[in-house]
Amino acid sequence: MKRWICWLCAAIFCFGIVSSAQAQAFWTQEELDCCLAALQQGEHQIPENKRILLSMDQLDKATDLDARWTHILLASSKAADMQKNDGASSLLFLLSVHSGSREMHLTVLPPSALLDVEGLPGPVPLKYINCFGGPRLVMQSLNRALGLNISRYCAVNEAVFSQAIETLGGVKISLTAEESAALSLPEGEALLTGEEALHFVRLRMAGEGASRPLRLMQSAYQQFTRDFSLSAIIRLARIILPMIDTNLSIKDVISLAYIAFTGEGPLGLSFYTLTADGAGRLGDEAAAAFHQNIDGVMLP
Length: 300
Hints:
Layout (H helix, E strand, L loop, with lengths): L1 H23 L4 H12 L28 E9 L14 E7 L5 E5 L5 E2 L8 E2 H21 L5 E6 H10 L3 E5 L1 H7 L4 E5 L1 H9 L9 H15 L3 H11 L3 E3 L3 H13 L6 E5 L10 H10 L7
Parallel strand pairs: 1-6, 3-10
Antiparallel strand pairs: 1-2, 2-3, 4-5, 6-9, 7-8
């Protein structure tokens, strides 16, 4: 009887090892390369049985951080169904809020930067990670790359982005000669429509590429705070809420909006941008820059 139990335990153990190995080989490099090529053409969706779905306990949050800071992932999504939320992300930000001082920082993340991803054999551009496993996989990947403890997120359909800009009456941006040519608009200050603003942040050219989302967000923020009103908040809420995927509570959203747009925080909303290293990765250099930008993130 004892021998039979030992054999059974050994079999279960070996099965666990094999299952674990199979899980690690969930994607082959060839499959991943083909999938990324298709995603770049906007022609592919990840099959449900190939998506990497994590629990909230698998986010690999850093434990040596100042608990007064909360870091929230903000992202756009091309998903047709925001309940599933499996679309690529052209815009990604980290909103960092200090519970004591109410200081707020918005950090623009480079969508094309490469990150290592759980269950995949090679690095993946940040903008496509959501396709493979949704916001939880994005948060886990960023936590590992930047040494953070992100556990909250808010993803908005990209159609909402352009509609929100339209609600503001457009957004003013100073365009370079190259940008104006790409957008078929005059060089210098231009009032962008929602679709033009989305095209603007998607431009992939030399020069100011990494800062375009930052420039757009700064301009939109300044414009919105200047024209801030309860009716403007209600108009935006009506547009955004039906096309959003978030684990933030209504109370969280209202509190963050109030601090950001009423200037209750000591410095208002500060803006930063992270860039990839020489190998195109988001890693140690970006992590050091992030922690340096946000004073007090790391405990001494």
